Amino acid sequence: MSSERFEALDEQLCEVLLEIENEYAEKLPLYKGYAKDELVTEIERKLDFCTKAIFDMESEAHSAPSTFRFDMMELIKKHKLSIQRISSLMRRTTTSIPSSSRPPYVGRSDIDDDVVQAVAEGSRVLDRTAESLTRATRVAVETEDIGHQVLNDLGQQRETLVRTRDRLFDANEELTRTRRILRVMRLRIMTNKLILILIIVLESAILAALIYYKFFV
């Protein structure tokens, strides 16, 4: 995971959920009357802590890098299912306790069937919302991965084009040097031809002078 706070919340949440599991499975069946009501209240308080921890973990997950976000949301979904399962068990437990045997305490009210159904429906809505967020996060992560891959491919293609351009520049420079050499060679050939013509003319003139001197002088 990328967030130390997320890891700390996950560790605390796992510990509290384990405590709730043990209290529900081992202690609650043995308790009666007031002691049972107190244990139920304690479990509900811990469930409230778990709900708040889930909210904080979701905040951390949404601000985390996309490469870690999917795994974080999957872990949150797993914890939500555990909390929902325990909450359902606790609702059945609290509705089975007669209201006369429960001690009054702050924030506690009688729970009728309509409220229980509303809470259950709210839990289902939250679960569906969490699943939608998980799917959206997965799609976003996959899209971002594809984007990174496309960017990498474009970067490699750019490097290939740059190397090709450099090779073309080198080839162009070689061609320029070759044209320059050919131009110099052509000038030298023309110069050599002119010199050769001058030599031939000069030799012809000398030969003509010799002939004239020998036969006419």
From TrEMBL:
Listed A to Z, the keywords are: Coiled coil, Membrane, Protein transport, Transmembrane, Transmembrane helix, Transport
Q: Which residues form the T-SNARE coiled-coil homology domain?
A: 118-185
Topology of this chain in the membrane: Single-pass type IV membrane protein
Membrane-spanning residues: 194-213
Biological processes, Gene Ontology terms: Golgi to vacuole transport; intra-Golgi vesicle-mediated transport; intracellular protein transport; macroautophagy; regulation of protein localization to plasma membrane; retrograde transport, endosome to Golgi; vesicle fusion with Golgi apparatus
A Pfam family annotated for this UniProt entry: V-SNARE
* Coiled-coil regions listed in the entry: none
What InterPro entries does the database record attribute to this sequence?
SNARE, T_SNARE_dom, v-SNARE_N_sf, Vesicle_trsprt_v-SNARE_N
Per UniProt, subcellular location reads as:
Membrane
Query: What is the superkingdom listed in this entry's lineage?
Result: Eukaryota
Spell out the GO cellular component terms annotated for this protein, sorted alphabetically and separated by semicolons.
cytosol; endoplasmic reticulum membrane; ER to Golgi transport vesicle membrane; Golgi apparatus; late endosome membrane; SNARE complex
Principal localization? membrane
Q: Which GO terms describe its molecular function?
A: SNAP receptor activity; SNARE binding
Give the PANTHER family listed for this entry: VESICLE TRANSPORT THROUGH INTERACTION WITH T-SNARES HOMOLOG 1B, VESICLE TRANSPORT V-SNARE PROTEIN VTI1-RELATED
Q: Which family does it belong to?
A: Belongs to the VTI1 family.
Q: What is this protein called?
A: t-SNARE coiled-coil homology domain-containing protein
